[in-house]
Amino acid sequence: MRFDTLRIRPNSFIKKALLMLTTVLTPWILMAAADVVEPPKEFSLANWDWVSILTWVLALLVILVIARAFDIGALTEKITGKSVMSWNNINAWIAIIFIVLSLAGVFWELKYHGQYVLLGDSSSLHGETYDSMFYWTFGFTFFVFVVTEFLLFYFMFRYRYNENRKALYYFHNNKLEVIWTIVPTIVLTFLVLRGFTTWSKITGEVSKDTQDIEVFAYQFGWKARYAGDDQQLGNQNFNFISGTNPLGVAEDSKVEELIGDLKKEVAQLEALQASAEDSTKAWKARHDRFVSTGLHITYPEDYKSLKAKYTDAVSGAYERTLEKDIKRKKTALNRISEYRKDKDFFNGAGDDDKVTTEIVLVKNKPYNFKFRARDVIHSAYMPHFRVQMNCVPGMPTSFAFTPTMTTAEARQTKGNKEFDYYLYCNKICGAAHYNMKIKVTVVDSEAEYNTWLASQAPLVTPAIAEESQKEEKDSKTEMGEMETAMLTNNPTLN
Ligand SMILES: [Cu+2]
Q: Residue ranges of the alpha helices (H) in 219-316?
């Protein structure tokens, strides 16, 4: 026997050891990663947990020894020519242990974390059908999952390689084909039909006593609009959106105010446009003076902004921006005045509408949420009511439902005194998406609801007019500052 056959090949040994190490370590690392909540401690030897480090070293050594043992086994086989261990048997047993542990893990998960995934105690009328549908689907698929997964691994175990056995060549069986086609067909037909009828019921005609509530999504928040005493929501259009009319309701005074503001802004921009040539000259003069006196070295930041303005003016970018702004504002003005001609559109229904930052509903009363979005696609999500609907700019959507559990009742059933229903945004819509929600309160009686609604200010009243005037004044001051800034940028007026 040649000496080199006795040598243990380091390559295969390291591979085996690494493979075993990864198998053992991966779940540990994943578990550790999932548990990381606290920020890492400052690095210091004193913080080291020597017991666990030594445990890890020991575990590593054990793994290396096992890997070595396998290698020695392989070597013995090579020397003696006799089979010491069978990888087929080892793999078969690994398969069966794996599936038993995995399925046990699935049941364990269901028992301890199922409450977070599986639904329960829905707070809306259609929610109960929805939940029952969910359970039927879950039941069927879970049963099939357990049976097929177990069989898959059991067959690996049962029919592992055996040199005394020859595999059966089995080409086709009509009976089997028929069974595994018909059974899923029946089950799927049942599930799909049930889903279809439920969805048609949820999205079907709403009853006459259904109350409309407009739900408005924007980056990043929600606003709701309730009809006033006339029980009718006013028309709206995104072109009417302004500081004092965030939902763009077709209301005379607000829209007139917006028209006035827009006209003023256009006039200001046009004045800037008229003096653009002089501005360019003045900026050039100032720029040259800055450079010739060496100020550009003393005040590099000021020089940078001056140079940017000067470059913009010389290249024509300044004028083009002004032109674009004027065009944009004029387009808005044109659109608004087209709407203004339509007296049916400005029917006064919106004057007493109430824009609120909370949604209040009465138990067992049907509601139809009419969704709108201002900027990007959002999604209104009320998990407790089993409601979800996309809110798309320019495309109104709706969802009708009836709440069946008050906030107080929900607090009691959930054993959480601080519980509140919320409408969340369920579409990643930007940086503050995570914080985009509005509280939904379900009250017991119409009286409670009426008290709340009465406390909400309508779009136009003397009281709100005062407040909006103040707001307007604030925004005007802001506007004034902006104008001043713009004018200061215009050197001819200095
Ligand atoms: Cu959003």
A: 252-274, 276-292, 295-298, 300-315
- Pair 213, 228: CB distance under 8 Å: no
Beta strands in 316-475 (DSSP E): 354-356, 359-362, 367-373, 378-382, 387-391, 397-401, 421-425, 437-443
Q: In this structure, how many other beta carbons lie within 10 angstroms of the beta carbon of residue 490?
A: 16
Q: How far is the CA of 395 from the centre of ligand 1 (A)?
A: 15
What is the distance in A from the centroid of ligand 1 to the CA of 235? Answer: 23
Please tell me the predicted confidence (pLDDT) of residue 10: 53
What are the residues facing 360 on neighbouring strands? 441
- 127-146 pLDDT, tens per residue? 888 888 888 998 999 999 99
C-alpha–C-alpha distance, residues 246 and 222, integer Å: 11
Say how many Å lie between the CA of residue 429 and the centre of ligand 1.
Answer: 5
Stretches in the chain below the pLDDT threshold 70: 1-13, 24, 27-43, 84, 119, 461-494
CA of 378 to the centre of ligand 1 (A): 4
Distance CA 378, CA 435 (A): 13
For 390-397, the CB contacts below 8 A with 24+ separation are 390/427, 391/215, 391/217, 393/238, 394/238, 396/370, 396/371, 396/372, 397/370, 397/371
Q: Count of CB atoms within 10 A of residue 330's CB?
A: 14
pLDDT at residue number 438 = 93
Scan for tokens 């049916």, then name that residue.
Answer: 344
Ligand 1 centre distance from Cα of residue 243 (Å) = 20
- DSSP H/E element including 214: strand 211-218
Cβ–Cβ < 8 Å for 127, 402: no
